[in-house]
Amino acid sequence: MIICLIGEPASGKTTLMKSIMLELGDMAFESKPFSYHYNDKFIVLGKYDTGVFQGTDKLSMAVQPKAIEFVKLHKDKIILLEGDRLGNLSFFVEIKKTHELHIFCIVADEKIKESRHIARGDKQSPKFKKSKRTKIANILKAENCLALENNDTEQAAFIQQTIFNKINGVLT
Question: How many domains would you assign to the chain?
Answer without folding.
Answer: 1
